[in-house]
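Why show two proteins at once? Because comparison is the fastest way to build intuition. When a single record is shown, students tend to memorize it. When two are placed side by side, the eye starts asking what differs. So, the first record is below.
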Amino acid sequence: MSGAPERPAVLVRDAAHTVIARQVREIRRQETLVLRGGAPDAIHDMRVATRRLRAALAVFRDVAVLPKAGRRRRRRRLRWLARQLGRVRDLDVRTALLAGQYLPRVAGEEAARVGGLLARLAERRAAAYRRLRRGLRRRRYRRLRVVLGGWVRSPECGGAADEGAARFMMDAVDRAALRVDGHDAMRDARPSGEALHDLRIAVKWLRYALDFHAEACGPADPAELALARELQDCLGDLRDHDLLLAALSEDGDDGRPWPQLTAAVEQGRRKLWRRFLQLRRRWRVLTQPPRTVAPIEQPRFVSLDAAPVLRLVG
């Protein structure tokens, strides 16, 4: 039977270049849009690409050989970039929650006060965006772009670079899944807001590992990726509500409370909490081995075929 010739299995070096290059290019693309006007979607997309790049560099830290000189500076600059984008994004999210979801549920004099709160948020957002723009034009950020772009054009790899990518990526997914599975917030009856935020970070890294597997080797089980995405989104919404509630208790408005607004936000958070409990139960069902099978040392979130993933030559 005739067919297109097959190339060797995807190697770890291929996976590293595919994943890292995609994030670097996305950062550059979104940076242009951010500098052009700072639209909320561009801020969000550049922030996500920055986070994914940091995760990719961690997953492939022993494979992607970047210049040793300045390694700590690169990490600090990527953290700085994520932090600056996050400050603008957090204000965008808070504004959207207030204006789009909760302002319609507030009436009377308190509704007028919410208008003043939104104006103050707009001022803070403008200031945060100006700081971000200045930072993106500094030499230290441009140097970071040069180093990352140079690796994308001429990647140097070491470590397990010549091994098959399927097993390597599966192991990365398993490590991330075990971190989620062992988190206290996956068992505690009433985890704190900070514990839920820490769990969200763990789930986010799991989702990125699953995404990286899909980008490099093909998609894993869609049910597992869908659950990771839903958990991340739910935990993110919970975090946004917690930050909004904290801001309402601290915002300088002559010290007056926000009874209607606070009650509405708390009601929204309770709905999200119930959603989280449902997703947590789904996690347990998905990761618990069948009773008819001998127990294993650790629950496996993903059951992937570690056989080589073949690519066709066009």
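Second record. Ask yourself what differs from the first in the token line.
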Amino acid sequence: MERTGGPDVLAWGELPDPSPDDGEVLVRLGAAGVNFIDTYHREGLYPRELPFVVGVEGAGTVESVGPGVEGVRPGDLVAWADGASGSYAEFVRVPADRAVPVPAGVRPPVAAAALLQGMTAHFLSHDTYRLGRGTRCLVHAAAGGVGLLLVQMAKAAGAEVFATAGSPEKGELARGAGADHVILYRDEDFAAAVERIAGPRPLDVVYDGVGRATFEGGLGLLRPRGTMVTFGNASGPVDPVSPLTLMNSGSLFLTRPTLRHYVATTAELRQRAGAVLGAVAAGELDVRIGATLPLVEARHAHELLEGRGTTGKVLLLP
């Protein structure tokens, strides 16, 4: 990318093969994950210095290691979702302390599909608002990459899950992941549907990765001292909220978390990644790969993601 904008600013090109610096490993890409954060970088919503190669998530085989690297060797299978950039490429330089080992039995595409969105679902359900038996949550875009994993984790914790989806097919995917109540938001108002099922303001927490289009409706569904977790901007960033609105709505909590603050240390990253990839390896967490495209079609991958034309995870393969 040499300028910010729509998918058309993504350009396919040749760059010199990189070499790992101190504390880095060079990874031959097996698969790159496509995420909404990539579109935020592309648009300039999250500014980065230009030019740059897009992509923050991937998995592959270590090609070589830089000076000072211990515990990672050429031939190791690793994944990353934080701390590395430039994942839409054949070779990626990854800080060794941000590379996580991939368990036996988990292929690189599955690892790339699971890591960023899996760790996001994990911190949302375990830390931002810890779900448990008897809690009620709403998961927006429940057939998306984060949504399907978050529904599974919420059900494993014992929560009652309300889920929104944009089509009957996506609704079935959410139901298959364990959602108790599936609402097709194009057919009915999701807030009215939730209250029809469970009564006025029944929710402990709303997990909203959609943003502007759903934020206000979700806020009105929270019980007093409930928690609004807005973690994405698929429909645009949320407008500013007055603290008095939160008070008048029942002393609500509002948070806008991001993954990097939940994997800030190497120990926390390895622990959270291990929990996600371990669950995948054990067959306890199902990862849906909705689309795989050649790396050269990154522009089309962004169009699919932003057009809500996918379910589960979108991957780019070299």
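One difference worth noting in the second protein: The longest strand covers residues 24-34.
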